[in-house]
UniProtKB/TrEMBL annotation:
The keyword Metal-binding applies. It comes from Parasutterella muris. This is Creatininase family protein. GO terms for molecular function: hydrolase activity, acting on carbon-nitrogen (but not peptide) bonds, in linear amides; metal ion binding. GO terms for biological process: riboflavin biosynthetic process. InterPro entries: Creatininase-like_sf, Creatininase/forma_Hydrolase. Belongs to the creatininase superfamily. Keywords: Hydrolase, Metal-binding, Zinc. It comes from the Bacteria. Its cofactor is Zn(2+).
Length: 256
């Protein structure tokens, strides 16, 4: 039987909630361009597959994914759908409020959309904890994989790069078209990086202007990084590392 909440009857949901010990996982991603070789839904698929494996192992309730994210800088390429942060904030808060009403008062938000989603998710989590008396954790693969990324020799975090492509190759190989990938190596820019593992001084992230995004898209089809170096073997190790960390977070919450 599927671990997803939407596949259950209300009676099955009640049993699942009891089994979960109050823990629910909410995958959140985006529908945005991921260059020539990855699907628009990459960020959501990544959040879903990590959440699915952890829910299977722990009995946590797994909600339907929030498919959309804030992606204004990717609107230069067809297929991208961007939602205003305030709308995402309110919708996610309502999801949490509904879960809490049913006894799921320990919520884990899985962020597949990296740094762009983080700020509104943090604000939403703070409001939910303050107003609803629940616990909310934000699990971001980019922050939960620093050790394994170094160990596996991956390049820096970019967009549709070696890391994302390897993960997708391991979990959704039929959706990856590596033969279409165009590398766009990340240049070392003084005082700026979006990579959580970056160890030097850096400005805070602001989404690219449409002009800059358009120029990048024309050069590489929307990629930042070197996807040609990706492989499924390292993608599986990366995935398993994320699942292991998420299981630890779930089990810690279940023990409280």
């Amino acid at each position: 039987m599927s671990v997803y909440l939407q596949t259950k009857s209300w009676e099955e949901a009640r049993k699942a909630i009891k089994k979960s010990k109050g823990v629910a996982i909410v995958p959140i991603g985006s529908v945005e361009q991921h260059s020539y070789h990855l699907p628009l839904g990459t960020d959501t698929y990544v959040a879903m597959t990590v959440a699915e494996d952890a829910a299977e192992k722990t009995g946590a309730v797994l909600t339907p994914p929030v498919w959309f994210g804030w992606s204004p800088h990717h609107m230069v390429l067809p297929g991208t759908i961007t939602i205003r942060p305030e709308v995402l904030f309110e919708m996610t808060y309502d999801i949490i409020e509904s879960l809490v009403a049913h006894g799921l008062n320990k919520i884990i938000l899985i962020n597949g959309h990296r740094i762009v989603n983080v700020v509104w998710m943090q604000l939403c989590a703070q409001k939910a904890q303050s107003k609803l008396g629940c616990t909310v954790k934000i699990f971001d693969p980019a922050y939960m994989s620093k050790d394994i990324v170094k160990e596996l020799g991956f390049g820096p975090v970019g967009h549709a790069e070696e890391i994302e492509t390897s993960h997708m190759m391991a979990r959704f190989p039929d959706m990856v078209h590596l033969e279409k990938a165009v590398d766009n190596p990340i240049k070392d820019t003084p005082l700026y990086s979006v990579d959580p593992t970056y160890e030097h001084d850096t400005l805070c992230y602001v989404p690219s202007s449409l002009a800059h995004a358009k120029a990048a898209a024309e050069k590489s089809g929307g990629c930042t990084g070197e996807p040609s170096k990706a492989d499924a073997e390292r993608g599986k190790i990366y995935h398993d590392h994320l699942v292991s960390n998420l299981v630890k977070v779930v089990e810690q919450l279940q023990s409280e």
